[in-house]
Specification:
Layout (H helix, E strand, L loop, with lengths): L3 E2 L18 E2 H32 L5 H30 L15 H26 L8 H25 L2 H36 L5 H34 L5 H22 L1 H5 L23 E3 L4 E4 L2 H6 L6 E4 L5 E2 L7 E2 L5 E4 L1
Antiparallel strand pairs: 1-2, 3-4, 4-5, 5-8, 6-7
């Protein structure tokens, strides 16, 4: 049975500053923060595991990609440290002091800012993929995605500044709740734009090869699932913030949002080889698999005549009478590395056994 605490009133009988009486139960304040913080730390362990796997498997990637991964990993570690400090300052350091229930610890603002930075990097990463799928056109949907992501980052910066200045949840909600609300709305909007755009361009560029069609179908399925996960967490945070600002459920959920984005990016990069070689499960097998983009196809080579030679075990099983499948492409067949992670195929390709 949880106790309900209220802020003390002034001598005149009216509520003391910040002029709002918040009835807070221990379970919905400290309990929500604790559960959200522990879940965030658990997901941070998944980020560390993903980072180790990336370093071991993709150590030959370009420094641009590796630098992005290292930055995400360091930001995630910093965010986890701030979450730990927030839990300590809110639950342990102020234990039994009812006057501190409405106080915002100094680390909450920076934690919100780090969440926005991680979100911005991940969303820009997927915006770059959309740019590539659009054949690098100047007028692209990636531009408004990046613009809205920048606006979301600005909102988070204002939130951090005001929280550090006001140091009161109720005062911040009274005067600046629209800023935090707008930031969450923009984040959910960008996630929706990225998901819809990726699905559209993946289906639009879907080639007429059986194995590649399977890859595109799998990418589309997990694009929807992964985008829905981050969007759902953001929208849940927004709902709790608008309907229950007197408790800290929104804060516990917000702790988790940064980890979902970091895991989304690292899992996307780590699963490329498995998808490319066909070792990942299809969506009907109920196995977890993130959104991925295609990397160099193992045992694949481009001949001097411009034909793509595929010699994977899966294709050998599908064509037992031929040791190799040669795909002659009329215009361009291009297999790029991790900087672009795309494969352009024309509809005029023809397959013939060698």
């Amino acid at each position: 049975m949880s106790r309900v605490w209220a802020f003390p009133a002034s001598s005149s009988g009216s509520p003391s500053a910040p002029l709002v009486i918040f009835a807070m139960s221990v379970g919905l304040t400290y309990g929500a923060m604790l559960v959200g913080g522990l879940l965030a730390l658990g997901l941070s362990g998944c980020v560390n595991m993903q980072f180790i796997v990336y370093c071991r498997v993709y150590f030959r990637e370009s420094w641009r990609t590796k630098s992005m991964v290292i930055v995400i990993w360091l930001l995630d570690l910093s965010h986890s440290a701030l979450v730990i400090v927030a839990l300590w300052d809110s639950i342990i350091a102020t234990y039994g002091d009812l006057s501190k229930l409405d106080t915002i610890p100094w680390c909450i603002g920076p934690a919100i800012e780090l969440t926005a930075i991680i979100t911005f990097i991940v969303q820009c990463f997927f915006a770059h993929r959309i740019y590539k799928l659009q054949k690098m056109k100047i007028f692209t949907i990636a531009i408004p995605i990046v613009a809205i992501a920048c606006a979301r980052l600005v909102m988070a910066s204002i939130t951090m500044t005001e929280m550090l200045k006001l140091k009161s949840y109720s005062t911040y909600f009274q005067h600046f709740n629209w800023i935090f609300t707008m930031g969450l709305l923009l984040s959910a909007l960008v996630d929706g734009m990225i998901t819809l755009s990726l699905c559209y361009f993946l289906r639009k560029n879907r080639p007429k090869f059986t194995d590649t069609m399977r890859i595109i179908d799998t990418l589309t399925f997990w694009t929807i699932q992964n985008g829905s996960m981050t969007s759902a967490a953001t929208i849940a945070t927004l709902i709790c913030w608008k309907t229950m600002p007197e408790n800290r459920i929104f804060l516990g959920l917000h702790f988790v949002v940064a980890k979902l984005y970091a895991n989304s990016l690292l899992a996307t990069l780590n699963a490329r080889k498995q998808i490319w070689t066909g070792k990942q499960y299809s969506p009907t097998n109920n196995q977890p698999m993130p959104i991925v983009f295609m990397e160099d196809y193992p045992e694949t080579s481009i001949t001097q005549q411009g034909s793509l030679r595929l010699g994977t075990p899966q294709m050998k099983e599908a064509h037992p009478r031929s040791k190799l499948i040669q795909v002659n492409v009329e215009h361009i067949v291009e297999s790029k590395g991790d900087d672009s992670m795309e494969m352009d195929m024309t509809d005029s390709a023809a397959c013939s056994p060698v």
